[in-house]
Amino acid sequence: MINLIQILIEGALVGLVYGLVAISFVVIYRASKIINLAQGEVVVVGAFLLWTFTAGAAAAGYPIPLALGLLLTFAGCVAFGWTVERTIFRPLIGQSAFTIFMAGVALLILLRGLTQLIWGAQSRSMPVILPEGALQLGPFLLNTRLLIGAVFTVVLTIALHAFFTRSRLGLRLAAVAEDHTTAHSLGVSVRQAIAVAWILGTMVATAAAVVLLSGSILSLEVAVIGFKALPVALLGGLESIRGAPLAGLIIGIFEALASAYLDPLTNGAASGLLPYAAMIAVLLIRPYGLFGWRRIERL
Amino acid sequence: MRPTGIWHASYATEARVLETVRSRLWLSLFGAVLLGLPLMASPWMLGELTNLFITLIAVCGLYVTVGMAGQINIAQSAFVGVGAFTAAKLSNMGAPVWAVIPAAALITGAVSVLFALPAARVKGFYLALTTLAAQVMFPIVILALPMSWLGGLVGMPVMPPVLFGLNLGTPSGLYFLGLAFAALAVWTTYNLPRSRIGRAFRTVHDNDSAAGVMGIPVTRIKIEAFFAGALYAGVAGAILAYMLQFVTVSSFTLFASVWYLGMLIVGGLHSPLGPILGVVFVTLVQEGLHTAGNAILQSGSGLGGGAVFAASSLVLGLCILAALIFEPRGLAHIWHQLMTAFRLWPFPRN
To answer: Range of B313's domain?
Structure first.
């Protein structure tokens, strides 16, 4: 029993990290109607920026205090998000969803090449930013790093949800997610929306990189997290900020259960297959995810 | 634009793909050059060309699914992998080439239908993600199956292809095998848009609600589009298996799928010429970068081999973006414009 609850706790904590990456995906979609397949690469870019301004700078002989390093990282995120908007998505405003999806594919290839060219393919160790160790809670152990990440995810979800449903700017972004042309004709700046979406999305992705990689190994393979977060984002509904961490919890818990109880029987395949099987099952029952917008189509 | 001096006296002349004597002459000349190449080209060159043919077959399949029917498929590489593993398994069981390749195509098609079935409920991007699921599940399933089935982590050897007592496992044999199936793939992609099902694909691509109203069974057409695209992938996979002589899951990554899509976009999504131009162009760029990279490596600067791969990713990404932003109809449209200008010369276009 204790074992089972321990598995559930670990699954939930890991699931909330998936949820955090999924939020960065949803933020971009919710504010600009861009389905960004390259979210994993964005996480990697954020992580490499972070590494550059912390361990990288120290190794080059210019040690930067951690707070300043984080600040510089987020400044880098703003620059990155703005560049992506200015060079790639601004010329594509009003194009079909298909074209924008393909731009995401191009961005995936481009960013993978760019990160490898700038930072190289070797793996690096990330500095410890969140405290390591485990919190003893009765008979259970909670990983501090993941626990802080989980709390952060929940707080961020509430804040972003309020931003998108209450603030004037957030509502404008929602209009852009509904339809570029309509939003534009109503005086909403689509350019601004896409820039805000990418800056916010990159920042959230970098925050996810902090939680995920603090004190661990950074390599180009980290980008796989993007494809783990996609089913989570889809399960929660692409338009729903609140759906993402909830879906992350569901996927994380089921993945942990599968890896504990089904993997020994299936040669280690169950935990890898489960998120995607769950995604397909949910799509068959609720095509727009748990909390997504139900779009009505007219001829 | 069509060349002048063409009028149709019968339905058969109107249905021709190649309308003028000159275009037929050019094509036969091109075919003769391709057939004669093994006499002079080096084995390395033949290998490169065979690889190009295999990629072309896979991208032709992608053109059917993505370009014609408008259903995004980010699992083409996994489907090629299914074809390759099927071919490896069957060849080890002693099946001859003429049975292995169609069987690989059909089994791959069946697997793709499994992932296209959600088309009954979901559409657009959500459907694209079920193909992503196929791509991610493929290596996990292969690795988890018992070693004796599909080789697991180690991979599987492939028996050399033998047709009528002739060993096709040599570079020139594989070249002809690839050439024959690439020609078949191109021939079918040129003719599919003119058939009933091809027009149904187009209609679903343009507006699936309207297609449903017009009496087209939208779900069935979408599933058939995936099936058709996967048939090509299966053939490509079978030939690739014969060429590699050993198949492992690591050859069929998500990244390869994304590359296939990139080639299609650069070439052009709306013309059967697109896959050909896209594959040739991207392969040339890649080879150019490899040559340049090798030169740099030999000159002894600090750059590693990874930089060459990174640079080719960078260039392909930029090419796709340039195509999307400046010429969404791809290289195929540029080619058509050049042809029009050539035909109208010395008069200006428009």
So the answer is: 273-350
Task: Determine the structural domain holding residue A131 and report its residue range.
Answer: 2-285
**DSSP three-state, residue A136:** strand
Please give the mean pLDDT across all residues of chain B.
88
What's the pTM value of the predicted model, to 2 decimals?
0.89
B176 and B104 both lie in a single domain: yes
Nearest to A267 among B126, B144, B321 (CB): B144
> B71 and B113 share a domain?
yes
Domain count, chain B: 2
Residue A299 belongs to some domain of the structure: no
The residue type at B135: Q
Task: Determine whether the interchain pair B265/A102 forms a contact, defined as Cβ–Cβ distance below 8 Å.
Answer: yes
Q: Is residue A167 part of a domain?
A: yes
Q: What confidence tens digit (pLDDT) does each residue in A133-163 have?
A: 788 877 888 888 888 899 999 999 999 999 9
Residue B304 pLDDT class (50, 70, 90 cuts): low
A88 contacts in B (CB within 8 Å)? 321, 325
**Are the C-beta atoms of A225 and A42 separated by less than 8 Å?**
no
Cβ atoms of B241 and B70 within 8 Å: the answer is no
ipTM score of the complex? 0.85
Report the alpha-carbon distance of residue B141 to residue B136 in Å, rounded. 9
- A269 vs B contacts (CB less than 8 Å): 140-141, 143-144
Which B residues, 93 through 122, put their C-beta within 8 Å of a C-beta on chain A? 118, 121-122
The 10s digit of each residue's pLDDT in A40-72 is 999 999 999 999 988 888 888 888 888 898 999
Q: Tell me whether B262 touches chain A (CB under 8 Å).
A: yes
Residue B157 main-chain phi, psi, to 5 deg: -75, 155
Q: Which amino acid is at A215?
A: G
Total number of domains in chain A: 1
